[in-house]
Amino acid sequence: MTGPQNAERGDTCLHCGEPVPQGSAGGAQFCCSGCHAAYEMIQGMGLESYYQRRCLDPGQPSMRPDDDDTRFDFQAFADTDEQGVTTLHLMVEGLQCAACVWLIETVLRQQPGVVHARINMTTRRLVLKWTAAEADAEQLIGAVTHLGYRLAPYDPSLISAENQQREKQLLRAMVVAGFAAGNVMMFSVSVWAGKDMGEFTRNSMHWLSALIALPAIAYAARPFFHSAITALKARRTNMDVPISLAVILASTMSLVETVRMSEHVYFDSAVSLVFFLLIGRYLDSRARGRARAAGENLMGLKARAVTILNDDGSREVAPPERLKPAMKFLVAAGERIAADGIVLNGESDIDTSLINGESVPVQALSGEKVFAGTLNLSGPITVEVTQTGEDTLLSEIVRLMEAAEDARAKYVALADRVARLYAPVVHTLAASAFLGWWLIAGLGWQDSLMIAIAVLIITCPCALGLAVPAVQVVAGGRLLQRGILLKTGTALERLATVDVAVFDKTGTLTRGTPHWVNRDAISEDDIHLAASLAALSKHPLSRALSREISGVPAAEGVEEVPGSGLKLMTDDGEVRLGRRGWCGVDDNAEHVEAELWLSRPNVTPVRFAFSDQVRVDATETVAALKAQGIHVMLLSGDRDAAVKAAAKAASIDDWHAALKPADKVDRLHELTNQGKSVMMVGDGLNDAPALAAAHVSLSPSSAADVSQTAADGIFQGDKLAPVLEALHVAKYADKLIKQNFALSFAYNVATIPMALAGFVTPLIAAIAMSTSSLVVISNSLRLGLGKGFTLKRQTDPQSNKPVQPAAHKET
Amino acid sequence: MESLIYLIPIALVLGLLALFAFLWALKSGQYEDMEGAANRILFDDDDTPTPQKKEPEEKSKDQD
């Protein structure tokens, strides 16, 4: 042990900020040797000001450098140009704050050969360029991974540039429209104000307006024209049809009026209409940008490499797609298994939590089946492939998920539903105004058309176009601050109607990590001994034990036997901590909990029991949901007893155990057929199809990649409260959206009669339109400003009752 | 009123300049990473800091 030993309070690691275990390999100030090395490296490069500058974000993964890292085939993603400069696109995991960006960039730039290293903080992607002759990928990436960040290569062409391109185009259109609106308004105001203005001056003003407005409209209104044409071709109508119609008619009519040297010129209304609507569109697109980036990052992480063992004994690193049945591959401790197969040799513990939600690892001996996506924990194993790609359990789940997703794609956003009703009304009104004035009232057709256009401009859903996106942007920002990321645009609307909440057990309702529960039953000496063995092991049960017992130094000479446990030679004989059979226990009693046994020569073995605890606020959350009239269910793939215990701890009455992924989907369909809106909260791979099938779904950030992709939203942290928060914000947002609709309808109700009567002048049109938009936007902002929005007090008055701290009682 | 003849073009040209300046900024990727840009300014050493360079910095911190 090398680290500084004299820290007065070596409570948290200097590098990663996690508690320092006693007898840590990194010394008294570091939780592990990895952190110590990272700290030394940063010091050595003269970058220690990093520690002053950063702020650790508890929602992000820990900065502890993991030695159990998945390996990637970096070379396959690196791209070298003629000048010998290699470019690699990487995703960065573990960024805490801007200081991390600075640290990574600086560390990389100090490496020989690096010519460019820049992280986009919004998307968390890194572009790295270096001279191929001077450095290689592994070495550069090693420098960053040693600091505790995880890097994964991705193929930038897989990430849709299309959306980004569209967003940029919207922004350009918005800016052009804004410029034109400002300038045209400048002329319009002078026309309105200058009643004594000469005719020539007024006409020049109109001509100037036309000069600015027409090209700007031609450019900036293209998104609306495009969407309107698409809708009309499909024989539908949407909000963009009346918008396009109003814009086109208003500008043509204004041009005609300008030529006729008449007074009624609506260029300002046409341009500012386009401008306001583009603001709405752009906000809408921005709100999804970040969520989209997160989703794409998940997709990119599929680029893991496997080590294939050839028949002649040679090894090669290759992408998993190359695996074929009967090929052999090596899985080191800490790696994910790439394909379904049979263990040929080696022993290990496999963490299958992604597949079946089981939190305690299962033993893998040679001859046993292992599944793609599971994590190899303790020892290296060689696996012979039995199934690949399409045939694996993983692909089966993905197929189920895709089938379920199809059904959900049919959901129609609220704004579109309103538009379907609204657009025909607007058209009818405008047409009847024209026909009424022309045929019945006997007005000239030009004047009748003017009135019809005024109706179109006044009714044009400018405020309607802002009603939804403005609220969604504010709500999305608010949720993001609380660690909740909504990935789909309509998630907020769908959340607002939830009346059944379905939870998964392991990792969702519970923490997904085992917790030692029978401390009282074991003597201090035994605890001490067990803890000294377990101190340095990475097995989840050992970790659970060391978490509970601090102050026990690691024993020297502990040996880990993969798939069995830990052993230590003492003067009295061999001490073992591990599986029941390996510790020589004959007791065959079945227990709900996971267990470790401690055996010593001539002493009865001692049993350490572990169970998965429900999250701290699970009971509270369930109670709060029930208080809102939401029915709570627990669907799990785990055994009956374990599910029952968790359900009881969280006070859920309606629980079902031993469900396969397809069973979960069936249950959800049953509920849907009863007319319920189901919210699914789950994390495991086995939940992914159910997440896709539910009306709306949330997933903790610890969830499997596939599940995060399937879910509508992802929440961070150890608590379930974000679920309530999301529901609450969704309900509030729903209320505001409806208010916004009501407000803009109220405007229309007040102004349409004026327009129909022919009283609307360009001035009135401009005022009505901007004020209604401003009112809608300010109303939406209330969601962000809303004081006293603390969740606990508002949503669950019953939450003052003490929360049951844990589920220990269940034995 | 005659002043309008040159004032209006001046106003329009200034507005157009601003518009093109923005479009150029957009094209050159300055809006790609709003979050990063906001934070980068807090880390003043754009260039790779050399060990000598960080020496004076040493004094200013060191509490906590």
Quick rundown:
The complex is a heterodimer of chains A (about 800) and B (about 60). Chain A is of the alpha+beta class and about 800 residues long.
What does this structure look like?
- The complex is a heterodimer of chains A (811) and B (64).
- Chain A has 811 residues and is of the alpha+beta class.
- Among the domains of chain A are: 1-44, no CATH class; 45-153, Alpha-Beta Plaits (2-Layer Sandwich), CATH 3.30.70; 162-294 and 413-460 and 735-756, no CATH class; 518-592, Calcium-transporting ATPase, cytoplasmic domain N, CATH 3.40.1110.10.
- Helix content of chain A is 48%, strand content 16%.
- Chain A contains 27 helices and 27 strands.
- In chain A, the strands form 5 sheets. In chain A, strands 15-27-26-25-16-23-24 form a 7-stranded mixed beta sheet, sandwiched between helices. A 6-stranded antiparallel beta sheet of chain A has the order 7-6-8-14-9-12, with no helix packed on it. A 6-stranded antiparallel beta sheet of chain A has the order 17-22-21-20-19-18.
- The model of chain A is unreliable at 1-10 and 787-811 (pLDDT under 50).
- In chain B, 58% of the residues lie in helices and 0% in strands.
- With 64 residues, chain B is an all-alpha fold.
- The chains are: A alpha+beta (811), B mainly alpha (64).
- Chain A binds chain B through residues 46-47, 49, 52-53, 97-99, 101-102, 106, 109-110, 119-123, 168, 171-172, 175-176, 179, 182-183, 186, 198, 201, 208, 212, and chain B through 1, 4, 8, 11-12, 15-16, 18-19, 22-23, 26, 31-36, 39-40, 42-43, 45, 48-51, 53-54, 57, 61, 64.
